[in-house]
Amino acid sequence: MSSMNTRNASSSEAVSKASASPDDLRWQAVTQRDKTADGAFYYAVRTTGVYCRPSCPSRQARRENVAFFDTGMQAEHAGFRPCKRCKPNEAALAERQAQVIAAACRAIEQAEELPSLDELAQIAGMSRFHFHRVFKEKTGVTPKAYAAAHRARRLREELAQRGTVTDAMYEAGFNSSGRFYAESGGRLGMTPSAWRAGGSGAQIHFAVAQCWLGAILVATTQKGVCAITLGDDPDRLVRDLQDQFPQAELVGGDAEFEKLIARVIGFIDAPQGDLNLPLDVRGTAFQQRVWQALRDIPAGTRVTYSDIAERIGKPSAVRAVASACASNAIAVLIPCHRVVRMDGSLSGYRWGVDRKKALLDRESGS
User: Fold this and answer.
1) Most confident stretch, 20-24, 164-168, 353-357
2) Mind listing the pLDDT tens digit for each residue in 203-259?
């Protein structure tokens, strides 16, 4: 009975909205201080001579004193002046903040030395605390983490292009060799020289086994798991690893490593909880945020690329999210297979759509 009442209420609400006039809907947005309506229209109060955004926090006016306008210019031509609280004649707060944070990101990327938090806050015209909070809200990472990810990306690019590691060090923004060598191993998973030489001198332990999905390769650096790949041809999986690090010393798994791959296969067989293995994943700050969001998806759950974009605070970055999923080199532990299209259909999967479907079917118990 209660569910029937709920349906009837929902139906009545839908009919009410359908029969409401445009101004009635606008007034509803004003009473709810709906931020999503900002920019769609403006309202003016005849008794004060002021016009506002729908989300304005000012004391609510009486309906009979309110007029609506499509643009702020129309309101001003009608003799109304902009509200000093919501500033409808300026960019919206969220837009202004986005512009300020974009400028701070450019300052970080272009600086020889990373600006301090106080310096960045001064550029943004905010307090130190407020800037830090807004930066993390807009980018998903702290200014320090953003700078570290940017420097790591530059380091990888420069190591591939420069004649020497020293040249790459300075071009990537490291003015101190001590700091460079202290940080670079964590950013690359191996020494800079080894990275530049395709993994020369680095040891990458790996093993290939069979699981119900076919062949599986697990590889680790000293930092953690750097690859879990799936396929039909075990030799192809090994060749792909060699192509990634052509000069690395690939070391076949010993008895201890066999235990690791057995844990991974066991997790694929029964993907509940978190295997909680250290990972050595390298990517941009954006990719790292996407991959972390993927790890937070429970087994048996399907989400869309739009859902992930929302979760990381970038609702318009759906294509970038899809690209980050495609760049994921660690199957199952970073479960990009749990991301589907808006209509629920399966999109591409690095290791084959059939495997994606099989993983999802097993997790759902079907």
Assistant:
1) 353-357
2) 788 888 888 999 999 998 888 888 899 999 988 888 888 877 776 778 887 777 888
Catalytic: which of 52, 83, 86, 226? 52
Report residue 228: phi and psi, to 5°. -135, 110
CB-count burial class (<10 Å; 0-12, 13-18, 19+) for 64: exposed
Please choose, from the candidates 256, 245, 136, 132, the residue with its C-alpha nearest in 3D space to the C-alpha of residue 199. Answer: 245
196 is written with which tokens?
A: 């530049």
Burial (Cβ within 10 Å: 0-12, 13-18, ≥19) of residue 189: buried
Confidence of residue 6 (pLDDT cuts 50, 70, 90): very low
Q: Are 281 and 226 in contact (CB under 8 A)?
A: yes
The pLDDT of residue 50 is above 90: yes
pLDDT in the model for residue 196: 47
pLDDT band at 308 (very low <50, low <70, confident <90, very high): very high
Output the six-digit token pair for 75: 């309101």
pLDDT of residue 157: 52
Write down the mean pLDDT value for the chain.
Answer: 78
Cβ–Cβ < 8 Å for 226, 204 = yes
Told to judge if 336 belongs to the known catalytic residues of this protein, a careful annotator would answer yes
Dihedral, 94, 97, 98, 100 alpha carbons, nearest 10: 160
Render pLDDT for 178-209 as a digit per residue (tens, 0 to 9): 343 334 344 444 444 444 444 445 678 888 88
